[in-house]
Amino acid sequence: MMEQPFTQSALFIWVIVPLLIFLARIVDVSLQTIRIVSISRGVRWLAPLVGFFEVLIWLLAIGQIMKRVSHPVAYIAYAAGFAAGTAIGQAIEQRLSLGMVLVRVITTASSREFRQRLHEQKFGFTHVPAQGAEGPVELVFTVIRRQHLQQVREMVRATLPDAFYSVEEVAGASEHVYPAPLRPRRDPAFPFRLFSKRK
Asked: pLDDT tens for residues 75-129?
C-alpha cells in the first residue's frame, strides 16, 4: 500500500497550511500598513520596497487559498491573519515613528522658557504674538521628526502646563533646522540667539 504524501495529510491541510496562511497574512497586512503610512508621511523611498514584499506574500497566501477552496479553515486563517496584521501593523508604525509633524502651541502665559528649551535642543520654531477670544496669546510652531514628539510634549508640559497644543501630520518640508550643523546669529529684536544652517 502506497503511503500518503505529507502534503495530502490531514495535519498539513487542516493545521500547517492554515497556520502558514495566517502568518503570511499578518506579515502582508503589517507591510501594507507601513506602506500606506510611509506614503502619507512623505517617506516615499520606503513605499515601493515594502510594496514589493507585500504583494509577493499576498500572492503566496492567495495561491494556497485557491488550491484549497473547499477548506473553510483556510478562509478563517486568512481573515484572522488580516485582523491580527492590522493590529500589529499599527503597533509597528508607532514604533517606527516615520515622518514629520507640526506641533502648534497656544498659550496665554509667556512662552520664553519653552522657546529657550527648543533652542537649546536645536529645534527650529516660529513665534507669533496673537489675539485669542479672551485676550493676547502666544503661538509657537515647530516642525519636528515624529521620533522627537514625546520630547517636545514633555517640554510643553514642563514649561507651559496650561497651554493648548495640537499635532498635525506633515507630508514634507523644504528645509529643516536640524540635524544640520547650526551657527548662532543674533537678532536685536529677539531676546536670545537664533540659529541658521551652516553655509
From this structure: 888 899 999 999 998 888 777 777 788 999 999 999 999 999 999 999 999 999 9
pLDDT digits (tens, 9 = 90+) for 7-25: 667 777 788 888 888 998 8
Q: What pLDDT, on a 0 to 100 scale, did the predictor assign at position 69?
A: 58
Q: Cell numbers at residue 53, please?
A: 514584499
Q: Considering only CA atoms, which of 165, 176, 45 is closest in space to residue 100? A: 176
CA dihedral 133, 169, 161, 151 (to 10 degrees): -160
Q: Judge if the upstream peptide bond of residue 179 is cis by omega within 30 degrees of 0.
A: yes
Q: Which grid cell is 89?
A: 501593523
In sequence order, what are the beta bridge partners of 138? 107, 129
Cell of residue 63, nine digits: 495561491
